[in-house]
Every structure is written in C-alpha cells, then in structure tokens.
Amino acid sequence: MQARKKDWNMYDQRIRAALLLLICCCLTACGGGREGSPTALLAGAEQTQPATLGESAALLQEPADLAGLPQLPLEAPRSSSAPPSDADRLCLGEEWENALASNKVAGDLFSPEFAGAAGRDLSDAAYAIYRFSNLADYTGKKQLVLGWSAAGDTPQDVRVALSNYALGRWEWHSMPAGMKLPLSGFADYVSPAGNSYAMVVSLDNGNFILDYVLAGGSTLPQMQVTTDLDQDPLKNIAPRVVSFNASGSRSYGGSIVSFDFDWEGDGIWDVEGNLDGLGIHEFSAGNYDTTVRATDNLGQQSSHVVSFAAIDPANTAPTASFTRSPESGEGPLTVQFDASGSSDGMGGYITKYEWDFAYGGGYEYVSDSPEAEWTFTLAGANQVTLRVTDNYLATHSVTFPVTLTEGWNTQGIVGNMDTRYRLAMCTSGTGADARACVAFFRFDAKDLCFVRAITANGSTWAGYSNPVSTALDTGFSPSMDVLPGGIPIIAYGQSGASGYDLYCVRADDFAATGWSAPSKIDAGNNYGIGSSLRVINTIPCVAVFDPTKSSGSSYVLYFQANDGMGSTWKLPQIALMAAPGVDFESVTLGRATDGLFRDPIIAAGYRNGLEYKGTYITSGTNIDGTSWDEPAVLDGWTTRGNFVDVNGRPAYAGSELGKTDPGGFFIRSLDGDGNAWPAEQTSYAGSAIANVCLVVDGRPEIYYQDGPTSRLLRVRAGDDNATSWSEPELVWNYMGEYACELNGTVVNGMPVLAYVYWSGNTREIRCVSWY
After folding, report:
1. Three-state DSSP class for 627?
2. Coil vs helix vs strand at 16
3. How far is CA 671 from CA 303, 537, 648, 649, 682, in A?
4. Phi and psi dihedrals of 187, rounded to 5?
5. Is CB count within 10 Å lower at the N or C end of the chain?
C-alpha cells in the first residue's frame, strides 16, 4: 500500500499557530532541531545532569516527575464529530508530524545512537510524534499498537507518551513485548479539536523501522492488487492469460488469512480460501470486472475490482456521428447535441461519448449517454468534436461547426510588449465619443504607455503613445480614471533617489491628443510602487501603501489634489495604521455614497510576515480624508481587486494574493457609505488569479482568469443587489501560460476588457469584447 501523506495545510490557522508554539517549546526543551537533546523532553526540565538510560527509565514510568515536558497542543474546539475511519486511526511510520519535535528519525527509520551500556544519554534517543483523529467517537478495541518492520533491528525498550488532555500533560507508558498497549479508553487523550497525539520513543541502539502506529483494533484489509495486464489496454488481446497478485494486501493490527477470486465479476467466487493471494486465469474476448476479496483473522473482509477488456482481435472501430440544433445563431447560443446515430459493428456497443466544444483542446463533457447540451459565446465557427469509444476500446471521431454571428472575440492592442504589472483602464469621452483606454508600464523600455480604442467595441485600436518623457524610468504600477468630460488622468511611479516617487499626468482632452506636464504627488517614500487613483466629486485622489516600513509600522495614506486638474496636491492623510506585525500588501481606492456626494473608501490587503492574512476596508467621513471610520476586517482574504457601486452601496471584488490556487470573493456593504459589512463574503470562484468587477445594465459582472484552465470566465449577479450569482460562463478560451494582468471598463453599456497575453516568446496586450 502506498504511504498516505498528511496535508499540513488542512489545519485551521489557529491550530497551526498552537502547534508551532509547541515546536518552540520542544526545541527549547531539546536544545533545538531534530538532533537536539531530548533529556528535558523525556525526564523533566528541572534535571540538570545528563540522565542515563537506567535513571530515565524510572522517571518515564512516573508521570508525576514529568512536569517539565512541553505543553500539549492547544487547539480550537471542533464543531462536529464523526466516527473515525481506519485512516483516522492509522499512521504509517513515515507519517510523523514533521512540524513537531523529533530526533534521530528519517522517514520510518528510528536510529538511536547509544555508545555503550553505561552513561548513555537520552539525547541519542529516537522519537517522533503521530496524530490521530476522532478517537473520542471510537467504540472498538481500546489499545495502541506499534508495528515494526522485520527489515530492521528489533527494538526492546520502547516508550510511548499519549496526549492526556484530561490531566493536561503527556502520559508515559512502556510498551509490552507484543507492542500492544491496553488502554481504558480514548476520551482523555482527545484535544478540543478532536486530535490525539502519540510520541514514540526508541531507547535501544540500532536501526529500527517503524511500520505503523495504530489506535484501536485492527483495520479492515487494505487491498493492493497488481496484474500483468499491459499498460496499453489495446494490447490485451484475447485469449489473454492474466496473473493477479494480492499478496501485498494488509490488515494493520491483524493478519490476512485467505483470498477469494471472482474472475468474471458475476458474484460467484471461482476460487475460495486461497492462502498466498496469487491467482491466474485465461479470459476470452469480453469486458471483465475481476474481484479479489481478502479475509483477516477476525473475519473482516475487503474487496478490490480490476476492470479491463480482453480485446477481440477481429474488432473494428465504431462510427461517430451527431446532429446539432440549432447549427448557428447569435450568442450566447445553447445547442442540443444528439449522437445516437453513432454505431458499432460486430455486435459491440459504445461505452463512452466525449465532446470537445472547441475550447482549446481536451474534452469538456464525457458521458455514457449520446445526448449533450452546451452554450456557446465565442463569435465565429466553433468546431465541435465528438469521440466515441466501444467496449473493446476502439475509437472514432467526427467534427462539425457551430457558428455564432455575434459573440465574444479577441484582438491585439499592442504586440511585442513586455509588460508585467498592472493594466489600468478607463472610458474616455462620452456618448458616441466614448472609447476604452489602457495605460501600462513597458517593462523592457521602462516607460509609461497609453493606448485608446478607435471603435466603441474595441475591435480596433490606435498606436500607443507616451504621456511622459521616455527618457525617464517612469510609469510603474499605473492607475487611471477620468475627469469630467471623460479626460484621462493617470497616477504612476517614477524612479527616484529612494525608490519610485509618486506622480500624476493628465490628458489635454478626452482623445488624449496631448498631455499636460506631470505633477509630483510625493517623493522620497517609494509610494509609487503601489497606488490607486480615483476621481471623487470631480477631484483626483490617490491612496498608497508603504512597502518599506518594518513590520507593524506600515500604513495607508490618502492624497487629495488641490484642484480638479490634479496640478498640485495636499499633504497626505493617514487612512490606516498597521496593527502589530501587520504589513500592507495592496491598496484599492473607491467611491462610497454619502448623500449627494461621494467619499473615499479604501481596501488594503495585509500580511503577517510571509503569511497573507486579510483585508481592511475603511471609509472616509469626508473627501479631504481628515477622518476615517473604524475599519472592517475580512479575515483570510488578502486581495487586489476593485470597488463598484451596486444599487447605491459600495461593493468589492477581488482574488487572494500569495496562494497557488487563489479563490475569488465578492462582498457588498450593508450601507451606502461602507461603514457596515456582512460577516461573510460570497465566493464566486474556486480559482481566480486575476479579476475585475464591472457594472453592466445595473448589475455587477465579475470577469476572472481561471487558474487550472487559463480561461477567461464570467459570473453575473442574478439581481440588482447581487444577492445571487450565475454559474461561470466562458468568455475566452485561453489567456496564456502565465497569470495575466486583467482589467476592464464599460463603454456605452458594453464591457471591454484588456489582458496581458504571455505564451512562449509571445507577449502582447489583447482586448476581449462582444461584437
């Protein structure tokens, strides 16, 4: 049986913190590290002289003398309980908790290093800690069993400490020669979170392989069945003699006494009482579910099924065929597919229908039914492929198009462009002159770039321009909004003496035919590395975080321009001060409704050291930012996202930072000025490595890149208050090989999105829009 690996990430953060505290206690007692001295760990911290083996043996048998041992793991109470499975009660030898104290242990190998019979110090003992779940609900045999592999030496002196939460200490036992320790019950050894811990200590000299640690009675037989079937199933041509080997099956805590074989899987045991788990049988052409059953010394039984086909050498491939209705139309278009016209000759039958709906490879829908349904959103000819498989594994494919006269499409904005950071977007101009705009930092040339669409739907774009001199290292992390009349204004970072200084630059008109001289917002503080600009009540405003402060000294600042052009700026106001150990990681500025006017609202993601922790949201009581409300805290949700107005209330959508598979979340304020927030946020995606929220026709829509597939997906609110959400819909089928930068804007009621496409040596900015 393959080793089961425990996932440390499954723990609650509070549990992890408590266990890490235990590590520190253990390291203190042990002198640090896996190779430190366990003298205090085993015999009490008050002991000042090295303990010999004989002296410590007596101490180990007297729990009252072990006051110096590390504290037990302190864990949060569990909300529910369930009877333990065999997996909850069993730890293989290599499954010790590597975040807790250990010594002289490598995987399942215990290697104490005692020099001689006299004066042997416990720093040379081998020990490790194992964890079990839900033992409080176990009603079976009350015992702890250690299994040692015959491949190593045989230990004679083995001690076990159990986590006694009723007494608040470790409870020590010497293991009997049979390595089965009887117990009165398990209740005292269970933590509030439902976990139990056993520390196994070897005090002999040698290399001992701990096979397993088992709490309770023997497990059901755990099946391991191998065959000599060819890995290519098409090579198993009938008649086929197949050998089965179940000798690796095990009953932990017990022994397997017999095996049974049902060759055809028809419920009739063809071989019973087999002793070695080895079986051999010749199969004629056909499909089989051979079943192997094991029985242990307590009469417990488990079965394993081996499914395979003995291929008829005369078999021919099936024929795939399907109809679609309708065959074309405007997107989104839901199409019904029927593959019942597919056939297989020679008395065979089709076992599997696989559908590829033109989404970049792979089969999106697999079924044993010939009917399928799919909704298409991509403009043009969507090539649909059906592959059918018969009972002898032969396949055949056929392809037909479904054509959309209207749908999502993509086109290039800027080619051969190495931009790795934020894309800023806005809609410049109004009415018939409204167009999508993109601002970005060109990484290789280190300059700020701006590009505006020629058409309203973003189907064509003008060439990019440079709002600021290209002689400067400028344009880092741009953010953009529009002044009255749809005139773009951009905040950005420019390289200075101590990092990126903070600047802004304004277009001369809505078409950005020219640009004003840049204005400095702040210099010398590296604020340009992460800023967010919004025009609030016709006045440009910027929020920044300082990434250079030491832990616990980080803050978020708010800048307000002196005029509507952003030509000069006021001194900053402190919007958020970090709590001890907190470092701000991202900042987003939005607009909250306060009567007839708008006030600033800020979301700031934070971390503690390297661990991403959550997001603060705070609202200003005035546009000047001289006073801010007590922040709401979204635990466990550190994001970079954006604010939108949803039916008069601010809402925030984002995806988690610092995670391999980040989730996507949405939350809407309970009031118009963003002072009160729900206790729980809505999860809109299990993986969203880039996202943007837009309000289209009064309802929010969230567009995001799905991590596993790199597709651009959309979820739409079911009503104006975003109380429900649709299932994800496909927008575009491939966003590139890497996490993209994604942003969007709304042009006359239609969403236009831009993203960084990076695949192989191709790097460019692309647009996705509906037309």
Report:
1. coil
2. helix
3. 59, 19, 8, 6, 17
4. -60, -40
5. N
Query: From CA 147, how far away is CA 208, in angstroms rounded?
Result: 11
E strand or H helix that includes residue 663: none
Closest CA to 177 of 157, 162, 153: 157
* 3-state SS class at 214: strand
CA distances from 657 to 11, 663, 739 (A): 19, 9, 12
Say how many Å lie between the first and final Cα of the chain, rounded. Answer: 56
Contacts with 185 (C-beta within 8 Å, 6 or more apart), sequence order: 142
CA distance 323 to 343: 14
- Is residue 423 within 8 A of residue 754, CB to CB? The reply is yes
Residue 100's pLDDT band, with cuts at 50, 70 and 90, is confident
Give tens-digit pLDDT for 696-725: 999 999 999 998 888 999 999 999 999 999
- Rg over alpha carbons for the chain, rounded to the nearest Å, is 33
Which pLDDT tens digit goes with each residue over 586-645?
Answer: 899 999 976 678 899 999 988 877 676 789 999 999 999 999 999 998 877 777 789 999
Q: How far apart are CA 390 and CA 479, in angstroms?
A: 56
| In contact, 609 and 581? CB cutoff 8 Å | yes
Neighbouring residues of 286: CB distance < 8 A, sequence distance ≥ 6 = 238, 309, 310
One-letter identity of residue 335:
V
* DSSP per-residue codes, 522-563: E-SS-GGGSEEEEEETTEEEEEEE-TTSPTT--EEEEEEBSS
Dihedral sign, CA of 206, 209, 214, 220? negative
* Vertex 36: Cα angle to 32 and 41 (nearest 5): 90
Rounded Cα–Cα distance for residues 397 and 142 (Å): 59
User: Residue 68: what pLDDT?
Assistant: 41
Residue 555 to residues 238, 603, 624: CA-CA distances in angstroms? 73, 12, 18
- 3-state SS of 59-92 is HHCCHHHCCCCCCCCCCCCCCCCCCCCHHHHEEE
- Give pLDDT tens digits for 292-323: 999 999 999 999 999 999 999 999 999 999 99
Least Cα distance to 767 among 738, 731, 739, 737 occurs for 731
**What's the distance, CA 12 to chain centroid?**
15
Distance CA 531, CA 528 (A): 6
pLDDT at position 358, please? Answer: 72
| CA-wise closest residue to 469 among 438, 447, 487 | 447
Burial class of residue 401 in the structure, from the number of CB atoms within 10 Å of its CB (0-12 exposed, 13-18 middle, 19+ buried): middle
Q: What is the pTM of this model?
A: 0.70
Residue among 42, 216, 52 at smallest CA distance from 136? 216
CB 539 within 8 A of CB 483: no
Six-digit token pair at 127?
Answer: 């020990």
CA distance 76 to 194: 9
pLDDT-derived band at 54, boundaries 50, 70, 90: very low
Q: CA separation (Å) from 519 to 160, 173, 285, 565?
A: 71, 75, 81, 10
* Distance set, CA 476 to CA 255, 491, 494 (Å): 67, 9, 7
